[in-house]
Design a protein that fits this description.
Largest sheet: 7 strands, mixed
Radius of gyration: 20 Å
Order of helices and strands: HEEHEHEHEHHEHEHH
Number of strands: 7
Structural class: alpha/beta
Oligomer: single chain
Low-confidence stretches: 86-93
Strand content: 5-15%
Helix content: 25-40%
């Protein structure tokens, strides 16, 4: 029997998301957690049973999710390449992975604004929850009012440390102090190009200083995992200049490139929207079944959608 995708949402999810979105848009906060899999997130349940606490590793997939595709899913489920192949047989697979995952939606994008026919922010949050069902690995959902990655990192670090403090007291009898979480931002190559483009900063000098702090172990200590993509058109001169700029961070192990699958690397939200609008059906192969059903139910991206 067919089941409505809205019935898969937790009770009160939509009204809660709308209220948190309004708080953000009214300037009453800069970041809101819309959903967590359990009250102890970003810890895993039982994570501190008699163990010391090292810095939590949190992956952050910041995207427009308009809609989420199988490329988003593959990137969200990827493991940190800088930890693979570094453990022995006495280390569990989970210790070669992130402790927590975060799907992040920015209500202020440096390049993309809400357009007529787009999914609303609440609809995107609902689709992000449906995507999280297929990730199923300690994944939370949040919204943020900050268009620049360096600013997002600052807000996330502050928010997570504030959230960790009371959880630490409640969960950690006798363990070491909690270190600042280590954030890894997941993105496609087109987003990486924007991150290293001077036009999004006051000057090239400011960009260099901010990115050095963003990626340096002595600064915010973030890493970037970039998915290789096809069918992404970027001016060759811009690509050459940007690759020269971030080469030092690749060499210093702060930026890694990964393959997310032969099919997945060609999938894009833009193509899904365009294909739906054209009345074709082949867009469904680019999204999960949950997302496909949600698009159909809510008649997204086309006035005559299915």
């Amino acid at each position: 029997m067919y089941r409505s995708q809205c019935s898969l949402l937790p009770p009160g999810f939509t009204s809660n998301a709308l209220g948190l979105l309004q708080r953000l848009q009214q300037g009453r906060s800069t970041l809101e957690l819309v959903h967590t899999p359990h009250e102890c997130w970003p810890f895993r349940p039982g994570q501190f049973t008699g163990k010391s606490c090292s810095a939590l590793r949190v992956s952050v997939l910041d995207s427009s999710f308009n809609p989420p595709t199988l490329a988003h899913l593959a990137l969200a489920k990827s493991r940190p390449p800088y930890l693979q192949g570094t453990t022995d047989h006495g280390v569990s697979a989970s210790e070669n992975d992130y402790d927590a995952r975060l799907l992040l939606l920015s209500v202020r994008n440096a390049e993309k604004s809400l357009m007529p026919g787009d999914a609303t922010y609440v609809q995107r949050l609902e689709m992000m929850y449906l995507l999280s069902l297929d990730i199923n690995d300690n994944v939370a959902i949040a919204i943020i009012d900050q268009p620049i990655f360096v600013g997002k990192s600052t807000i996330l670090h502050s928010f997570l440390q504030s959230r960790l403090a009371p959880l630490h007291i409640a969960l950690s009898a006798g363990i070491e102090a909690i270190h600042r979480p280590k954030l890894t931002f997941l993105m496609g190559f087109d987003t990486l190009v924007r991150l290293f483009s001077p036009k999004y900063y006051a000057s090239e000098e400011e960009m260099t200083g901010l990115l050095q702090d963003f990626l340096s172990p002595e600064g915010q200590d973030c890493r970037i995992i970039c998915a290789r993509r096809v069918n992404v058109t970027i001016d060759e001169e811009v690509q050459r200049r940007v690759m020269t700029t971030f080469r030092e961070f690749v060499d210093s192990d702060r930026i890694h490139f990964i393959n997310i699958g032969e099919d997945e690397q060609s999938f894009s939200s833009t193509d899904v929207r365009a294909t739906v609008a054209a009345g074709m059906d082949n867009w469904r192969r680019q999204v999960t079944d949950h997302i496909a059903d949600y698009i159909i139910e809510n008649r997204l991206y086309a006035s005559n959608a299915m």
